[in-house]
């Protein structure tokens, strides 16, 4: 099959871009910078921001934002609330300033409603998860990140204020990942709920972040690149969260896993779309071709998704399930910009 081209290094570090060389995008230090003993810095405008979880670039940016009131986290306010974090492996405390309290208030009064799918999980997001976050710093940073991003997208802030909220969201998201990755290999069952909640927040952040920067500046990522990044993140988080499902389902966070049942019903337009995809696949390929069965299985997964959506199933949850059900090789084809892989999208 034609139409496949080599994937460019869209997420390369600044040093490789400046020298016009291909970056292997290793984090936190790419191979080129490692060989040259350069400080490796990645852009912060990507949708996932996995890069900024440590190192010189992260530290400098964190110090700048924590010391500047214009960045949305004024450090000159008195720290009135101090909470011990039993969830964190090291003995740490979180100090809430006025900016943090504003983000938490926005979460409990507005953001939690915007991400709730139904009544079953509304109370979980509004009350239970913030309570757990008081004893788990990475979860609290995840809440702050999504709350700040929600404010930036609300339309009530413009110019420098909106930019400051986006910067605040990036900082908290990076801090959440930094704390989380330090202890993920030694996680105890008591932390499964907080980890599952953070995974859900990171997925939501990945979907929403490109919307926040779209009108602010031209990003280096195409819409397809951003979508692929979200696909990869969802699958990684699903693989990470699967061993925790039984514990979470039996806990007070169980409402997050409730998926409303619907009657299976594939509409006529969906039937025609699936039929057209299968006919196109048979026209351009054959069962002996390497990727034929990958695309055939992907179309089958899409048919199952449309069947449930046409039957009034909840869209977001079912779409997440579809992303996890499609073959891994389909994601690889998307990353290679395979022309047929774009059709099901």
Automatic annotation (TrEMBL):
It comes from Aspergillus bertholletiae. InterPro entries: Fun_TF, Sterol_Uptake_Regulator, Zn2-C6_fun-type_DNA-bd_sf, Zn2Cys6_DnaBD. It comes from the Eukaryota. Pfam families: Fungal_trans_2 (PF11951), Zn_clus (PF00172). The lineage of its organism: Eukaryota, Fungi, Dikarya, Ascomycota, Pezizomycotina. This is Zn(2)-C6 fungal-type domain-containing protein. Residues 12-42 form the Zn(2)-C6 fungal-type domain. The chain crosses the membrane at residues 192-213. GO terms for molecular function: DNA binding; DNA-binding transcription activator activity, RNA polymerase II-specific; zinc ion binding. Keywords: DNA-binding, Membrane, Nucleus, Transcription, Transcription regulation, Transmembrane, Transmembrane helix.
